[in-house]
C-alpha cells in the first residue's frame, strides 16, 4: 500500500537519524538536507538508497541532486512509489 | 584412447606470508590543493584521506613489487626458487609487452616460475588470490606469489577535483601455498560490464597515434595530458555501498561464517565513507578490526588489500590465524570477496 505524506516524512526522519545522527523531530518538510540536517552529498546517496528500499521507489542519480529538502524528497516518493 | 594422469595438488590453500612497499614520498592534502579548488577538510570528510604515497622515478612497478614480494617470501618462510607462479595485478604498468610479471619473477630469483599479469582494477587482489588458490589445489604450482601493484599517480589528473586527491602508489604481495585445512573460502566474484563507463580512462592509448595528436587534451600549461582515471563518483559510491555490502555478506555465507566469527574486515581502500557504510550494513560487531589504511595510503587499487593486511599485522591490530573478510571492487565494474585466515 502506498505510504502517506506523514508516513514518508516519518520514514525519512528515521533514515536521516540512522545515517547522520540527527534527532527525528528535526526532520521537517522545509529542512534542507545539506544546510540544516548535516547530510552531505555522500550521506545523501545513503539516504536515497535506504529510501528506495523502504518506499519501493527508484531514485536515479540524476534526480538526486534535485532533492534539496525533505519536502522535495517526500513529493518525489509520493509521486513515484510503486 | 591414452590415459592422462591427473594433476595432484594440495588439499587446501592458505596465505602463508604478506609484504608491502610504500613509496618514500608522503604527499599531504596541501600538495593536492595547489592544483584544485578544494580544502583539507573537504577531502578528509568525503574520503578519509590525509596523506598518500607517490612513487619516484626509481620506484617503478617492478621495483616496488620486488620489495613487497621479498618481504612476503621471507614472511612465508620459503625460498624464491620454490615459487611456481607469479601473478601480478596492475593497471599502471605502461608497457604491455612483455608482462611485468616475468621481470619480477626473474629479479626475485625464482626458478623459471610461470608469470603473467592480470587486469582487474581494484578487485585485482581477489582475482589473483582466487587464481592462486586454484593453482595450489589443482597442483600446477606449490607456491604462488600474488602481487597487487600500482603507480596511480601516473594516471591521476591533478587538475580534476573529483579524483586528484584519491589515488596513491604502492605494492602488496602474498604467498599462497598448501594447507591441511581450508584457509581461503569460496570467492564470490563477478563483473557488471553494463557499468563499464562509471570508472574509466579519459582516452585510450591509441589516440596517441599520429594524426590524432592535435585533438589530445592539454593541461593549463599547454602540455599534452596523459590518460587519467575518471569516474562518476556518486554512481560508483552508490554501487559500492549498496551492492558490495551484499557481496560481502554472500562471501560470509559461502564460507559458513557469521559477522560474530569474524576478527578482521579488510575492504578495498577506496573511500572511508564506503568502508563505514559497509560496516554498518553488515552489522559488524565492535570486536571486528576494520582496515582504514586509506587515511595514509589513499586508493592504491589492486595493492590496497595486501598493503592494509600487512599494516594491520605489523601494528598488532590483527594477528596470524585471525579470520578476515576481504573484498575488492572497482573499474569494470568488477568485484571479488572471500574469507581468509591471516598469515
Ligand atoms: C569522489 C567522491 C569523494 C566525490 O564526492 P561527491 O560527494 O560524489 O562529489 P560531487 O561531485 O557530487 O560533489 C559534491 C559537492 O562537492 C563539491 N566538490 C566536488 N569535488 C570537490 C573537491 N575536490 N573539493 C571541494 N569540493 C568539491 C561539488 O562542487 C559539489 O558541491 P555543490 O553540491 O555545492 O555543487 C565520491 O563520489 C566517491 O568517493 N565515490 C566513490 C569513488 C570510488 O570509490 N571509486 C573507486 C572505486 S575503486
From TrEMBL, chain A:
Function text: Acyl carrier protein involved in meromycolate extension.
Protein name according to UniProt: Acyl carrier protein
Modified residues (O-(pantetheine 4'-phosphoryl)serine): 41
Biological process annotations from GO: lipid A biosynthetic process
Keyword Cell division: no
Organism whose genome encodes this protein: Streptomyces swartbergensis
Gene encoding the protein: acpP
UniProt PTM comment: 4'-phosphopantetheine is transferred from CoA to a specific serine of apo-ACP by AcpS. This modification is essential for activity because fatty acids are bound in thioester linkage to the sulfhydryl of the prosthetic group.
Subcellular localization, as worded in the UniProt entry: Cytoplasm
Transmembrane parts of this sequence: none
NCBIfam families: PRK00982.1-1, PRK00982.1-2, PRK00982.1-4
Amino acid at each position: 500500500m502506498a505510504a502517506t505524506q506523514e508516513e514518508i516524512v516519518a520514514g525519512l526522519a528515521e533514515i536521516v537519524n540512522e545515517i547522520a545522527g540527527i534527532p527525528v523531530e528535526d526532520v521537517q518538510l522545509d529542512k534542507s538536507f545539506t544546510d540544516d540536517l548535516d547530510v552531505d552529498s555522500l550521506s545523501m546517496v545513503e539516504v536515497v538508497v535506504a529510501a528506495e528500499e523502504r518506499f519501493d521507489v527508484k531514485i536515479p542519480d540524476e534526480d538526486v541532486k534535485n532533492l534539496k529538502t525533505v519536502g522535495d524528497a517526500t513529493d518525489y516518493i509520493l509521486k513515484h512509489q510503486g | 584412447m591414452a590415459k592422462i594422469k591427473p594433476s595432484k595438488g594440495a588439499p587446501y590453500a592458505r596465505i602463508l606470508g604478506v609484504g608491502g612497499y610504500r613509496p618514500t614520498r608522503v604527499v599531504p592534502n596541501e600538495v593536492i590543493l595547489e592544483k584544485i579548488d578544494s580544502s583539507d577538510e573537504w577531502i578528509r570528510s568525503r574520503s578519509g584521506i590525509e596523506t598518500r604515497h607517490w612513487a619516484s622515478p626509481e620506484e617503478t612497478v617492478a621495483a616496488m613489487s620486488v620489495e613487497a614480494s621479498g618481504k612476503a617470501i621471507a614472511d612465508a618462510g620459503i625460498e624464491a626458487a620454490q615459487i611456481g607462479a607469479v601473478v601480478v595485478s596492475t593497471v599502471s604498468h605502461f608497457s604491455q609487452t612483455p608482462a611485468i610479471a616475468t621481470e619480477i619473477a626473474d629479479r626475485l630469483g625464482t626458478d623459471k616460475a610461470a608469470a603473467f599479469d592480470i587486469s582487474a582494477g581494484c578487485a585485482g587482489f581477489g582475482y589473483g588470490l582466487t587464481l592462486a588458490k586454484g593453482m595450489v589445489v589443482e597442483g600446477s604450482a606449490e607456491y604462488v606469489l600474488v602481487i597487487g601493484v600500482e603507480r596511480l599517480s601516473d594516471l591521476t589528473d591533478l587538475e580534476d577535483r573529483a579524483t586528484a586527491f584519491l589515488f596513491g602508489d604502492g605494492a602488496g604481495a602474498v604467498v599462497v601455498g598448501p594447507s591441511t585445512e581450508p584457509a581461503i573460502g569460496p570467492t564470490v566474484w563477478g563483473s557488471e560490464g553494463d557499468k563499464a563507463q562509471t570508472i574509466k580512462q579519459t582516452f585510450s592509448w591509441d589516440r596517441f597515434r599520429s594524426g590524432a595528436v592535435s585533438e589530445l587534451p592539454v593541461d593549463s600549461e599547454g602540455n599534452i595530458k596523459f590518460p587519467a582515471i575518471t569516474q562518476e563518483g556518486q554512481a560508483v559510491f552508490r554501487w559500492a555501498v549498496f551492492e558490495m555490502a551484499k557481496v560481502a555478506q554472500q562471501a560470509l555465507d559461502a564460507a559458513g561464517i557469521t559477522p560474530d566469527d569474524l576478527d578482521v574486515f579488510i575492504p578495498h581502500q577506496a573511500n572511508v565513507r564506503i568502508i563505514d557504510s559497509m560496516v554498518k550494513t553488515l552489522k559488524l560487531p565492535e570486536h571486528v578490526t576494520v582496515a582504514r589504511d586509506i587515511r595514509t595510503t589513499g586508493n592504491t587499487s589492486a595493492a590496497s588489500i595486501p598493503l592494509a593486511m600487512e599494516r594491520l599485522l605489523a601494528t598488532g591490530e590483527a594477528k596470524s590465524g585471525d579470520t578476515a573478510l576481504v573484498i575488492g571492487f572497482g573499474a569494470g565494474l568488477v568485484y571479488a570477496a572471500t574469507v581468509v585466515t591471516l598469515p
